[in-house]
Each structure stands twice: as structure tokens, then as C-alpha cells.
């Protein structure tokens, strides 16, 4: 009897993680993981995290995190009323998120998203929200299903306030997706 290994999400390590066979169906995301992600990590412009199922080194999914900012004027008025009156507010960008086509239908995208949100909540730097730039309507729908809200003037840019992320994990007892 064999037990399926539990997926592990960790920082990209080019000596241990095999990215060569990764294919999510979006060429730009495949190319990013295979040739750009390690450079971004070295240059400290993004932190790429990968999902693997040990002992296999094959990457089943990934996401990136980096710092960004939001203009207060771009946020919904109801939220701005609760924030300090700064014109620019710190946020965390969930820059890319993709699952290998071979791993689809297993909830790995949601697992990656929740891991990223949990990581952002535990972050050591100030961030009032997590921001995503959806590549298309399907991606935007994925994030909306997980309670992200579109910015009024930028429909492909969605966000979730850190206060909502905190509530999400508190009400779920730090649930796993």
C-alpha cells in the first residue's frame, strides 16, 4: 500500500526543483518559470514559490510574491475611509500563479493561493492588501471566487484587504484549502 505524498510549497531552488517539464497552457507563465523566475529571485524583484510532491522534484505549480503599492484613489471609498490618509498604500503583489496541466482538477491552484495569502499575512513588512493582475476573465473569476474584489477603474486588477485575509483564516481555524 502506498501513501500519496503531501504537496510541499517552498522557495524555488534551481538545484532541487525541476521546472523543465512545467506546462500550464500559458506560454508566458511556462517561460517565466523555466527561464526568468530564478533570475528574479537572485535580483530580489520577486520571490518564486513552487509546489512539489516529494520525492519528485517536478514543479506542479508556482506563484510569486513581491512588494507593490496601491493608490488610495483607486480603492473603493468605503475601504479608504477606514485607512490612514496616505495617497499611496503598501501592498503585496501576487504576481503569477499557475498549475501544471497535469495537476489540474486537484485544487492545487486554491492550495497555492491560500499558501500565498497565509504567507502574506505572516509577513514581516507592512501590507494592507494582496493584489493580483488577472491575465484574462478566467483568472479574474478564479480570484473573485476566493473573495478578491476588482478595483473600480482597473477591472483586471483585484485585491483582498489584509483584514479580510486575517478574518478568512481566523474564522476557518487556519483551514487548509
The residue ranges in which pLDDT falls below 50 over 5 or more consecutive positions are: none
Backbone CA Rg: 17 Å
Please state the average pLDDT score: 91
Task: Tally the beta strands.
Answer: 7
- Strand residues, percent: 25-35%
Give the termini distance in whole angstroms. 26 Å
Q: Any idea of the CATH class? A: Alpha Beta
Fourth-level CATH superfamily: Gcn5-related N-acetyltransferase (GNAT)
Largest sheet descriptor: 7 strands, mixed
- The general outline is globular
CATH topology: Aminopeptidase
Oligomer: single chain
Summing up helix and strand content along with how strands pair, one would put the structural category as alpha+beta
> Helix segment count?
5
Q: Give the fraction of residues assigned to helices.
A: 25-40%
Describe the structure.
The chain is an alpha+beta fold and 177 residues long. It is built from 5 helices and 7 strands. The chain has a single domain, classed as Aminopeptidase, CATH 3.40.630. Helix 3 crosses helix 5 (162-171). Strand 6 (149-151) and strand 7 (154-161) form a beta hairpin. It has a 7-stranded mixed beta sheet, with helices on both faces. The protein is 30% helix and 28% strand. It catalyses: glycyl-tRNA(Gly) + acetyl-CoA = N-acetylglycyl-tRNA(Gly) + CoA + H(+).
Q: Keyphrases for this structure?
A:
toxin-antitoxin system; alpha+beta; 5 helices; 7 strands; Aminopeptidase; transferase; 7-stranded mixed sheet; repressor; 30% helix; Acyl_CoA_acyltransferase; 177 residues; Acetyltransferase (GNAT) domain-containing protein
